[in-house]
Amino acid sequence: GEDVEQSLFLSVREGDSSVINCTYTDSSSTYLYWYKQEPGAGLQLLTYIFSNMDMKQDQRLTVLLNKKDKHLSLRIADTQTGDSAIYFCAEKSPSGTYKYIFGTGTRLKVLA
Amino acid sequence: GAGVSQSPSNKVTEKGKDVELRCDPISGHTALYWYRQSLGQGLEFLIYFQGNSAPDKSGLPSDRFSAERTGGSVSTLTIQRTQQEDSAVYLCASSLDLAGPQHFGDGTRLSIL
User: Fold this and answer.
1) In sequence order, which residues have a C-beta less than 8 Å from that of residue A44 and are 6 or more positions away?
2) Per-residue pLDDT tens for A62-73?
3) Which one-letter DSSP state was computed for residue B86?
4) Kind of pairing between the strands at B108-112 and B10-13
5) Residues of chain B contacting residue A99, judged by C-beta atoms under 8 Å apart
6) Is B58 in Cβ contact with A97 (below 8 Å)?
7) Fewer CB within 10 Å, N- or C-terminus of chain B?
C-alpha cells in the first residue's frame, strides 16, 4: 500500500546539521519532495529529487535518495532558528492520479 | 497572482451548515489539488483538477463534499451539512501541469462548532 513514514520530532542546536529521514513504500515513485510548514502557513516547496538521482544539493539543503532501501533524507547544514518548522516528505503517486502521498511530518526544533 | 490564494483564511460555523472554500491558483497553472490536514496529521488528498475536469474524486470523504473549477482557474470546495469531524485545515495547491511540483496556499482553517 501507499505509506510514507517520518519520525515525529527532531531537536538540534543552532549551527549544527539536521538530518530528517523518510521512508516510502512505492519503488515506482518518480519524484520525491520535501516541504516546510511554518505555523499557520501552507506548505513551502523546499526541494525535490527525481528517482534516478542519488543526491541533490541546493545551498544549505542536501537530499539523499537510497532507492534500494526506499529511504530519503534531507540534511540542513548550519541549522538556524528560522529553520524550526514541520518538514514533510512526499512521493508522487505512480498510480496515475497525480496526488502526492505525504508523511505525517517531522517537527524540527532548533535550540539557540 | 504571485502565489496560491485561499479564502477565507479562517471559517467558524455551526454543525449542519454548508461552507464554501475558495482557491485561486497561480496564474497559468492548469492543475489544481485539494488536501485536508487534520490536527497533528499529514495531508489527506481530496481531489484534483486538470483544467476544469476532475479525473479523480476518490479522496472525497463523503457525498457531502464536492468541488468544482471554472474557467480553468478558481476552484471551490463545498461541504454540505458540516460535521465536527470536518474541522481541519483545507489546503489547495496548483502546478503548471500534472508533472510539475505542487505549490500550496496558506489554507483555510475550518472549525465546526
Assistant:
1) A35, A36, A37, A38, B104
2) 999 998 899 999
3) G
4) parallel
5) 33, 45, 48, 56, 59
6) yes
7) N
Q: Is A57 helix (H, G, I), strand (E, B) or coil?
A: strand
pLDDT tens track for B33-49: 999 998 767 788 999 99
Question: Residue A92 has which C-alpha cell?
Answer: 508522487
**How distant, in Å, are the alpha carbons of A23, A68, A105, A107, B6 from that of B22?**
33, 41, 25, 28, 6
Cell of B1: 497572482
CB contact under 8 A, A41 and B93: no
Q: pLDDT tens across A28-43, in order? A: 777 899 999 998 888 9
Whether residues A97 and B104 touch (CB distance < 8 A) is answered with: no
Average of per-residue pLDDT values in chain B = 93
